[in-house]
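YM 10:42: Uracil-DNA glycosylase family protein sequence, as discussed on the call
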Amino acid sequence: MPTLDAFLADVRACTRCAAHLPHGVRPVFQFHPSAPILIAGQAPGARVHASGVPFDDASGDRLRAWLGIDRDTFYDPTRIAILPMGFCYPGTGKTGDLPPRPECAPAWRDAFMQRFERLSLVIVLGSYAMDYHLGTGKAPLTEIVQNWREHWPQALPLPHPSPRNNRWLVRNPWFEHDVLPALKARVREVLTTKETS
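YM 10:58: structure's back
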């Protein structure tokens, strides 16, 4: 197995799907083997592609509020790993951003997962990440999130924190009342355990 630095350099230099990326190659992720929490998302959006900082947008603000953590904690790679299913911005289609490129996860994801040393919680955003990490297949998002206890406390499926999901959040008040308090408590527990161990 290559050293961590060599492995991360290889990922950042990846050009496997360059021909399919209209805005160019820019892998965006955050990783350290000691991180106890993984945020498994879809793919970077346009703003994140421009900044190179994961969740540096309105979605990130909402996600940090859901987790109950500040920016310093969120961007500490020894606490929070951020690995989208596709590391590069795939561009936009008729209804929003395109799905993550299919080349990315087979090339890199297993190698990342094998490097975690103390992973305790995987926060899973979006259908591609849910299928990979939870084996949910084509099940509807609402059904998957409603059944969150099936994966608890090792993993938690969430709707994407994008403002595009405001309507879903209004239609599903149980999410804020039932899921988010449990999520905040679990994040606090995991991060406290890391600090004291």
